[in-house]
Design goal:
Blueprint: H1 22-45, E1 48-55, E2 61-66, E3 88-95, E4 98-108, E5 111-115, E6 123-125, E7 131-137
Antiparallel strand pairs: 1-3, 2-4, 4-5, 4-7, 6-7
């Protein structure tokens, strides 16, 4: 029995480049530009971490309130911590870029008192005849 070998014939295949017209290239540039602008907007609106610290007598309840939380006192999410029990209270907030006014709300024997941030020299007068501290997030 004889076996015939078949030889495969090979064809040269050349890949054709897709044709891109000037209109197509302009559209690609425009799409890339819009995508870059959206990415810049997202970065600009991204929240940033800001840490506020203050000194009061140890063992107090201290909250921070301001335009970032509609001046809500007793807001558990804005309660400051005295981690070393040495009277240094701190909190880290996530805020979008902008200008915020704030004060500390210090609770003593169940009664709260507003106190401005004495370490922040940037202040503005408020409707109560006192001052609010100003925080600028960039």
């Amino acid at each position: 029995m004889k076996i015939k070998s078949k030889t495969a014939t090979t064809k040269e295949v050349t890949a054709k480049k897709p044709r891109c017209t000037r209109k197509c290239a302009t559209k690609k540039v425009a799409v890339a530009k819009v995508a870059a602008e959206k990415k810049a907007e997202v970065k600009q609106d991204a929240e940033k971490s800001v840490t506020l610290t203050c000194r009061f007598e140890a063992g107090r309840e201290v909250y921070v309130a301001g335009t970032f939380n509609n001046w809500q006192t007793w807001d558990k999410s804005k309660k400051m911590a005295d981690k070393k029990d040495d009277g240094v209270y701190s909190i880290t907030l996530r805020l979008k870029p902008g200008r915020y006014e704030y004060k500390f709300f210090v609770v003593t024997d169940g009664k709260g008192d507003w106190t401005e941030d004495v370490e922040n020299v940037d202040k503005v007068p408020n409707a109560m005849g006192t001052f609010n501290s100003v925080l600028t997030v960039e």
